[in-house]
Amino acid sequence: MASTAAVPFWRSAGMTYISYSNICANIVRNCLKEPHKSDALAREKVHFTVTKWSEGKPEKPTTRSDDPDV
Amino acid sequence: MAMAALRREGRRFAGSITAPRPMPAIRSALISDEQVPLGVRSISTQIVRNRMKSVRNIQKITKAMKMVAASKLRAIQTRAENSRGLWQPFTALLGDTPGVEVKKNVIVTISSDKGLCGGINSTSVKISRAIHKLTSGPEKEVKYVILGEKAKAQLMRDSKKDIELCITELQKNPLNYTQVAVLADDILKNVEFDALRIVFNKFQSVVAFLPTMSTVLSPEVVEREAEAGGTLGALDSYEIEGGETKGEILQNLAEFQFSCVMFNAVLENACSEQGARMSAMDSSSRNAGDMLDRLTIFYNRTRQASITTELIEIISGASALEG
């Protein structure tokens, strides 16, 4: 059954539910008071390297990170 | 791997102890031509002392690695057990159907970046290959998404063209949900799938790791299965609040389920990795201790033999002078 109802704004903007909930969680974290705020923000750091493969060959890897130096 | 090398060295060593004459067949790495000329009966004690020093160092290092792994395990174990509560409601609602018939399967293999952790990465890769074999067929497509260096190295050898994505350096910061969520988002955006099979090692206890596969279906497949009946067919009995349709909610749920299952899988695999590393380093230090005992006995025997030989020479020389 095809859903013709209006999709939420974030879905039509190309976001998945996961990224939407991530952004919401980040907003909530930023609402905390110090020192809990810096603890929470330090706890949820992201760092990983993704390599997309095509036809059995790896392409250039991209690093997604919160570190300022990477 | 370290333990097997130590054992091999010990066996080669035992061969050279039993033969008094250095035959070319059992010339080991211990006796090299520059240090011991042909015809000399015994091995110099210096070589044995060097070997004992290096084995003692290896024992200390592996013991330290075991302590480090034990402390890391303690830190991560409670988090892994708590994260089990994230996916259990999903399985209660949507069910876990490994036997679902779909066209596009994507196998997500979770492994570690670092080595010296026993056989858990090999088991994960073995299971992934078996699932690949099971789910491939005419008009069916099976792809890999690999997390961790170790599985990448193994799967690169024979399944190169089936790899979609490789993710490494995941454990640079302590594992958290945000990171896994961003990762899951990347996978969702880049890979087309009907069903995701996540392969990881479930942490049962410090010595027991169970290779597990979790199945997450895409929303379209969930709708199809819901119409077919079974656990998913009971979804219709739920009331939907808010202005969203059932298809909308199913899509959100499927994405969130993937993210939660991934989080739990990554945590459990990290626990299993530390536990396996603990037991591997423990057996390595035990083997090093055994080897050290054998080397000490050999060293003492060699030392006493050379002292006896000297005494004999002195005494026979003295008696030759007298007589």
TrEMBL record, chain A:
<dbReference type="GO" id="GO:0005743">
    <property type="term" value="C:mitochondrial inner membrane"/>
</dbReference>
<comment type="function">
    <text>Mitochondrial membrane ATP synthase (F(1)F(0) ATP synthase or Complex V) produces ATP from ADP in the presence of a proton gradient across the membrane which is generated by electron transport complexes of the respiratory chain. F-type ATPases consist of two structural domains, F(1) - containing the extramembraneous catalytic core, and F(0) - containing the membrane proton channel, linked together by a central stalk and a peripheral stalk. During catalysis, ATP synthesis in the catalytic domain of F(1) is coupled via a rotary mechanism of the central stalk subunits to proton translocation.</text>
</comment>
<keyword id="KW-0496">Mitochondrion</keyword>
<protein>
    <recommendedName>
        <fullName>ATP synthase subunit epsilon, mitochondrial</fullName>
    </recommendedName>
</protein>
<keyword id="KW-0406">Ion transport</keyword>
<keyword id="KW-0472">Membrane</keyword>
<dbReference type="GO" id="GO:0042776">
    <property type="term" value="P:proton motive force-driven mitochondrial ATP synthesis"/>
</dbReference>
<dbReference type="InterPro" id="IPR036742">
    <property type="entry name" value="ATP_synth_F1_esu_sf_mt"/>
</dbReference>
<keyword id="KW-0999">Mitochondrion inner membrane</keyword>
<keyword id="KW-0813">Transport</keyword>
<dbReference type="Pfam" id="PF04627">
    <property type="entry name" value="ATP-synt_Eps"/>
</dbReference>
<comment type="similarity">
    <text>Belongs to the eukaryotic ATPase epsilon family.</text>
</comment>
<dbReference type="InterPro" id="IPR006721">
    <property type="entry name" value="ATP_synth_F1_esu_mt"/>
</dbReference>
<dbReference type="GO" id="GO:0046933">
    <property type="term" value="F:proton-transporting ATP synthase activity, rotational mechanism"/>
</dbReference>
<dbReference type="GO" id="GO:0045259">
    <property type="term" value="C:proton-transporting ATP synthase complex"/>
</dbReference>
<keyword id="KW-0066">ATP synthesis</keyword>
<keyword id="KW-0375">Hydrogen ion transport</keyword>
<comment type="subunit">
    <text>F-type ATPases have 2 components, CF(1) - the catalytic core - and CF(0) - the membrane proton channel. CF(1) has five subunits: alpha(3), beta(3), gamma(1), delta(1), epsilon(1). CF(0) has three main subunits: a, b and c.</text>
</comment>
<keyword id="KW-0139">CF(1)</keyword>
Automatic annotation (TrEMBL), chain B:
<dbReference type="InterPro" id="IPR000131">
    <property type="entry name" value="ATP_synth_F1_gsu"/>
</dbReference>
<keyword id="KW-0496">Mitochondrion</keyword>
<keyword id="KW-0375">Hydrogen ion transport</keyword>
<keyword id="KW-0813">Transport</keyword>
<keyword id="KW-0066">ATP synthesis</keyword>
<keyword id="KW-0472">Membrane</keyword>
<comment type="similarity">
    <text>Belongs to the ATPase gamma chain family.</text>
</comment>
<comment type="subunit">
    <text>F-type ATPases have 2 components, CF(1) - the catalytic core - and CF(0) - the membrane proton channel. CF(1) has five subunits: alpha(3), beta(3), gamma(1), delta(1), epsilon(1). CF(0) has three main subunits: a, b and c.</text>
</comment>
<keyword id="KW-0406">Ion transport</keyword>
<keyword id="KW-0139">CF(1)</keyword>
<dbReference type="InterPro" id="IPR035968">
    <property type="entry name" value="ATP_synth_F1_ATPase_gsu"/>
</dbReference>
<dbReference type="GO" id="GO:0045259">
    <property type="term" value="C:proton-transporting ATP synthase complex"/>
</dbReference>
<dbReference type="GO" id="GO:0005743">
    <property type="term" value="C:mitochondrial inner membrane"/>
</dbReference>
<dbReference type="Pfam" id="PF00231">
    <property type="entry name" value="ATP-synt"/>
</dbReference>
<comment type="subunit">
    <text>F-type ATPases have 2 components, CF(1) - the catalytic core - and CF(0) - the membrane proton channel. CF(1) and CF(0) have multiple subunits.</text>
</comment>
<keyword id="KW-0809">Transit peptide</keyword>
<protein>
    <recommendedName>
        <fullName>ATP synthase subunit gamma</fullName>
    </recommendedName>
</protein>
<dbReference type="GO" id="GO:0046933">
    <property type="term" value="F:proton-transporting ATP synthase activity, rotational mechanism"/>
</dbReference>
<comment type="function">
    <text>Mitochondrial membrane ATP synthase (F(1)F(0) ATP synthase or Complex V) produces ATP from ADP in the presence of a proton gradient across the membrane which is generated by electron transport complexes of the respiratory chain. F-type ATPases consist of two structural domains, F(1) - containing the extramembraneous catalytic core, and F(0) - containing the membrane proton channel, linked together by a central stalk and a peripheral stalk. During catalysis, ATP synthesis in the catalytic domain of F(1) is coupled via a rotary mechanism of the central stalk subunits to proton translocation.</text>
</comment>
<keyword id="KW-0999">Mitochondrion inner membrane</keyword>
<dbReference type="InterPro" id="IPR023632">
    <property type="entry name" value="ATP_synth_F1_gsu_CS"/>
</dbReference>
